[in-house]
Amino acid sequence: MTILKMRAINHGTRKADKNRYCGPAVISSLTGITTAGASRLIRHINSRRTRVMGTHSWEVCKSLRLCGVTVKRIDHPTRHKITLARWLNQNIKERTPGRIFLIVAGNHWQLVSGRRYVCGRIGDVVSIKHPKVKRRARVTEVYEITAHGTLTIPTNITDNPSVSDHRKEQNRWRYKAKKLAKEWNLDIDNDWTVWNDEKTVFGNSETENHKDYPYYDDHESVTSENWRTIYRYCETIIDFMKEHNIKP
Length: 248
Prior knowledge:
There is one protein chain. By secondary structure, the chain is of the alpha+beta class. Helices cover 33% and strands 17% of the residues. It has eight helices and nine strands.
């Protein structure tokens, strides 16, 4: 098992290397890449993003997973949200040195290991008693961070500003797929989870209930994270509709 450690946030040496928001900051602390590189990673995963400010949990978790980091959500009662100070006190025995927790508190990503703390707002690894730590913020999510092999940083994404080309291509296919779906009364459903940004194509009611419909009760066959693939699925369903004289 690879021993992970928290680092000071890496903002690089150039303005182009810096993103000042907390999602890229925790990715930077765990992997060592610059915050701008972390934001490119997030934009690669979520092709609809043009810039990274606030982040969804699935975006941060999937970005870490892409780097070889294992992210395990810990059951945490959300009905009665406790403060960060109380969470730290309740889990004092679990907070052993070397064990890293990724926490969302006060809509802010932060890392805790033993008595050490780091986040994008502070930048350096400090004590959990540091005055800038928002100890009264309410905890909403907790994850444990580990790595079972060598970190695999996708430098072709993190070090390449032209990664936006992939995003632009996905945006083009998204536009074409949604336009085609609207013309033929198809429905494209987005299912965002911690790990996936899956899209599924559904035909209209007549198509879905047709006895010869190739995807009857098998919607996983028309599910993908890639908009170009979704466009191809739309074309396949439309060909079926034309063949059986099914109107939009």
